[in-house]
Amino acid sequence: MNAEYTEILKEFNEEQVAKLDGIIAKHKGKPGGLIPVLEEAQIALEYLPICVQKRIARGMNLPFSRVYGVVTFYSFFTMTPRGRHTVRVCLGTACYVRGGKALAEALEKGVRRGGGETTADRRFTYETVRCLGACGLGPSWSLTRTCTAG
């Protein structure tokens, strides 16, 4: 086994790696194939750590920097495991001045996590965002896809 394969097996099983390889093969050589590969890989593996990005880069004959650049540019992609539920607190200007900062601090204390972190049991991921689209009702927060204001 090569070092790259050994590294990826620390986080994923052989079946998951085989699925990733199938995803790469399906899109290899196709113009614009990188984003579909990343999307499908994230659905299959739940997140895209460096070892997965390296395998995608090698499999698609792309520089690692290109894969990493796309993963870090788009907020849809994540390099760390996520929780089943995502708690988001708005810290945009309207929410911030209406108590968003205090709400964020209370939630951080409650889940014992900072922004962008996931609980050890992978039940919750806590994030701060700049807008949830409920500016007039702030401070706003959401749990998974439900927005609550005030």
Describe this structure in words.
The protein has 150 residues and is of the alpha+beta class. It has two domains: 3-73; 85-149, Glutaredoxin (3-Layer(aba) Sandwich), CATH 3.40.30.10. It has helices at 3-8, 14-27, 34-45, 50-59, 64-73, 93-111, and strands at residues 85-90, 117-118, 124-129, 140-143, 146-149. Strands 2-3-1-4-5 form a five-stranded mixed β-sheet, covered by helices on one side. The termini are far apart. The relative contact order is 0.12.
Quick tags:
single chain; 150 residues; alpha+beta; Glutaredoxin; 2 domains; five-stranded mixed β-sheet; 6 helices; 47% helix
Q: What is the first-to-last residue Cα distance? A: 55 Å
Which class of secondary structure composition applies to the elements? alpha+beta
Order of helices and strands: HHHHHEHEEEE
Uncertain stretches = none
* Strand elements, count: 5
Kindly give the count of domains.
2
Q: What value does the average pLDDT take?
A: 88
* Rg (CA only): 18 Å
Given the C-alpha coordinates, what overall shape results? elongated
**Helix segment tally:** 6
Q: Assess the beta-strand content as a share of residues.
A: 5-15%
- Fraction of residues in H or I helices: 40-55%
Strand order, largest beta sheet: 2-3-1-4-5
